[in-house]
Write a structure and sequence with these properties.
This protein has nine helices and nine strands. It is of the alpha+beta class. The protein has two domains: about 120 residues, Jelly Rolls; about 80 residues, Arc Repressor Mutant, subunit A, CATH 1.10.10. A hairpin with a 2-residue loop joins strand 8 and strand 9. Helix 4 packs across helix 5, helix 6 packs across helix 8 and helix 7 packs across helix 8. The radius of gyration is 18 Å and the shape is globular.
């Protein structure tokens, strides 16, 4: 995608908004460019926007008291995030960092609440979205406790194929092994072993900078194995 307009048109909720509200959103949302390693939002900052990823890849993460990095989610193009913090009008409890140069749409909080007030379709979308986000968080907590690198990598890849949270996802995603390592908390060397193992099982294909899932149900079964 190249623009906020394209991002909005790919959502399930934007076409269902009343015409005046669609116009207000189109005029009110603004794009920003975040270089690799830069912050979309930083822990402790006041939340002012709901974010949508136009292009690139964003990592939502935090650092524990003992200095351990915890990654909650990888956000590809088409993903919207930050609704929980915006709803509660809180400061951000996590960092959102661009893993590669990314374009991000910023939808002001005032517009976000206006959509909730004026659009039943958007409110219904948000209920489903928050429910999916909760399920993703629970899966992430479970995955974070796994000690087998291949299972952590498999769960990381599965999280990128949630059609509710990431509607633009398909069987192929632009993702390097280094980025998989950042998202799964596994070293690049162990990521390479893991993806080669899954490739040998016919679950996915690996090419330069890309992962193609060839058997999504098989990948789910593989990720669900008890170590």
């Amino acid at each position: 995608m190249n623009s906020t307009d394209e991002l909005l048109q790919t959502t399930s909720w934007f076409p269902k908004l009343p015409a005046p509200l669609r116009e207000a959103v189109s005029n009110g949302v603004r794009p920003i460019v975040v270089e690799a390693g830069g912050y979309v939002c930083r822990r402790g900052d006041v939340s002012q926007c709901w974010f949508g990823v136009i292009d690139g890849l964003v990592k939502v993460c935090n650092t524990s008291i003992d200095g351990r990095l915890m990654t909650f989610a990888g956000l590809p193009p088409g993903a919207w995030f930050g609704e929980g913090t915006v709803l509660k009008a809180e400061r951000w409890h996590y960092d959102a960092i661009a893993l590669r140069t990314s374009r991000v749409a910023c939808l002001p909080a005032a517009l976000f609440f206006r959509m909730l007030d004026e659009s039943i379709a958007f409110t219904r979308f948000m209920l489903e979205h928050v429910n999916e986000r909760l399920g993703q968080l629970m899966a992430t907590v479970q995955s974070d406790r796994l000690t087998v690198p291949a299972l952590r990598v498999a769960n990381c890849l599965l999280a990128m194929f949630n059609s509710q949270l990431y509607p633009l996802g398909d069987a192929e995603i632009q993702l390097t092994q280094e980025e998989i390592g950042y998202l799964s908390g596994v070293t690049r060397q162990k990521v390479n072993i893991a993806v080669r193992q899954m490739e040998a099982l016919g679950l996915l294909n690996i090419s330069y900078g890309r992962v193609t899932v060839t058997d999504l149900n098989g990948l789910r079964l593989f990720a669900a194995r008890v170590p």
